[in-house]
Amino acid sequence: MRLPTRQIPSVLPGTRGTLRAGRPTRALVPRLKEGDIAVIDHVDLDRSTALAIATTGVIAVVNAQPMVSGRYPNRGPKTLADAGIELIDQIGEAGLEKLVDGRKARILDGEIFDGERLLASGRVLDQESLESDLENAKQGLSSHLELFTHNSSELLRREEEVLLHGNGVPPLDTPLAGRPVVVVADHPDLDRLLGDLEGFLREQRPTIIAVGPAAKRLTKKQVRHAVLVLGADTDTFPEPKVLTGAAEVVLAPGGSGSEQAAELLDRVGVQPKRFESSLAPEDAALLIAYAQHPSLVVGAGLSTTLTDFLEDQRPGLAGTYLTRLALGPMLIDASAVPAVRRKEPLARRLVLPLLTAVTALAIGLPAGVWAADHGLTGRGLSEIGTGAGGDAGAGATVDTTSGQSTRTETDSRQSAEAQFVAESGDALLPGRLAGQKVAVVTFPGADRKTVDTLTGNITAAGGETTGVLDVRPNLLDPDRKQYVDSLATQLVEQLGRGDADQATYQRMGQVIGETYAGRKPPAEFDKQAKTAAVALLTGDLVKAQGRPTGPADLVLVVLGEDNDDTTAVEGLTEGLGATTKGLVVTAATGSEDLAALRANDWPGWFASVDGIESTTGQIVAPLALARQKNQEGGEFGASGFGGLLKD
């Protein structure tokens, strides 16, 4: 008699785990455990979400959608693949319905089984196929960028007052002026980023602004001194003891209803400041910090690259980009801080402004962004200067060695000039610049009180000052010439005007002239000029004192400290003169830069005035501008060959 034998069941091949399914993906992540198979419905998986998934210890990710759709090269799938997680995508809606949450399953060659029963199938993604998909996705980047640009422009129109002028940003009681600030947002890599900042936090003692759930990641000591910025979603709020322990709380609901959030804060005894804007809380936090005039803003857990912006799926993405553009070089990422502390930040000084400017060029943003903070604390144009008969002309002189204005006593040395002002100034200026718009361009070291008086006298002559544009030292720095050259080339192409064959500073002078003036300026800044202005300002090459009101007819240049090498000054002057209706270059008595400019055989577009530290020079300058409506040229002032002024 043959005894029955027990058959040993065969072990089916494949990767085994428990299915965990849910939408949206971020809601699923907290339920994932080690050994699970994550089932998601997420097109173009972003890196931030992928990092959160990878930290849970899942063994595989099954996606109903394409991991890489081809719109842009998103980094999420590669992040998972690099972590050794098996990937399957494109199982479709029907397949998704069969992968029930909590069911045991195994994966083999892109197929998902329950025992031997096939549930769904999709495409296996390995490193090779991912690299191919990502390479192909680069072709779709431009079209996705166009949509991103459109959304940015629309948001800029809606949020102009906040983004450009800071209106509506609540002032903080916590002092930030002149101090470093760290803005902390929730991110899967936040612990590492805070670790990178450990030395910086210890040495600099910056103020911390924590956004939403990021406050939970801070120490008790850090929370006590932190400012919390919260959105409308109360699920992201930290526990009550964190809320009540913060230095202060700002409620920035991002355009959503905030009544529930306000009620919750009220119940725990917190009276928040309100920031009513459609910007996301992370972006609101940056603007709140920036409005307090800190010395530096460090972002921990924020989007920093173009790919970050494109693959971040949350609403308000355009605000993320525009906010960071507004902060410009003041904002750096936490990951860069260790390098900054070890070495002079040449990369930040040179590369970051270039990347910012080039990005602005690439998407063609309206140049209203330049007014985010470029001297808006200065007086309005209607208040600048005192006119021909004002205090500035009553004996104020400039010490050209120190650049500081000093008032002399009323004595005989002043009498001739005072008499000229009293008897002739009021008669000479009125109507000379009637209907003319004048842009004032100052060079580093130009005396601000002298500039104010010059702009006041332009107004007294019937002209309209469109704004004061300060040339930044970076534009004249020989170490930045390569950057200036690259940007000038791109801007000439962007404007569609100017001569690309000219030398570096001639081209940059053309760019500034075509942007803020031009031989045939339109009534308002055109799109090309706006884009160029953004690039110049975000590249820290110029700074606008006040918001420029439009292109000008004439340009007044005010020189400052003499340069060892006048190449840049001469090149910028030549470029400006070649692209504007009329140009007058002014300087204090004894200016070597002005002497070098006068030594050139310039055409009629060039006129000059020296001695602008005196009232006489300050009145001659607008009269010379009036002559330049016809490009008559000439050298005027105390030592000019044309005398005080040819009539």
Can you put this structure into words, describing what you see?
This protein is an alpha/beta fold and about 650 residues long. The chain is built from 26 helices and 24 strands. Helix 1 links the parallel strand 1 and strand 2. Helix 17 packs antiparallel against helix 23 (about 525-540), helix 19 crosses helix 26 (about 615-625) and helix 21 (about 480-495) crosses helix 22.
Radius of gyration, in Å, reads 31 Å
Instruction: Report, as a whole number of angstroms, the end-to-end distance.
Output: 135 Å
What does the largest sheet look like?
A: 8 strands, mixed
Mean pLDDT: 77
Low-confidence stretches: 5-9, 343-356, 358-414
Topology:
Blueprint: E1 15-21, H1 25-28, E2 36-40, H2 47-54, E3 60-63, H3 76-82, E4 86-89, H4 92-98, E5 104-108, E6 111-114, E7 117-121, E8 123-125, H5 127-137, H6 141-158, H7 160-165, E9 180-184, H8 190-196, H9 198-204, E10 207-211, H10 220-224, E11 227-230, H11 240-245, E12 248-251, H12 259-267, E13 273-274, H13 281-291, E14 296-300, H14 306-311, H15 317-327, E15 331-333, H16 337-342, H17 346-363, E16 396-398, E17 405-407, H18 412-428, E18 437-442, H19 448-460, E19 464-471, H20 473-476, H21 481-495, H22 504-516, H23 527-538, E20 542-545, E21 554-558, H24 567-579, E22 582-586, H25 592-598, E23 606-609, H26 615-627, E24 634-636
Parallel strand pairs: 1-2, 2-3, 3-4, 9-10, 9-14, 10-11, 11-12, 12-13, 14-15, 18-19, 18-21, 21-22, 22-23, 23-24
Antiparallel strand pairs: 1-5, 4-8, 5-6, 6-7, 16-17, 19-20
Helix pairs in contact: 2-3, 6-15, 13-15, 17-21, 17-23, 18-26, 19-26, 21-22, 21-23, 22-23, 22-24
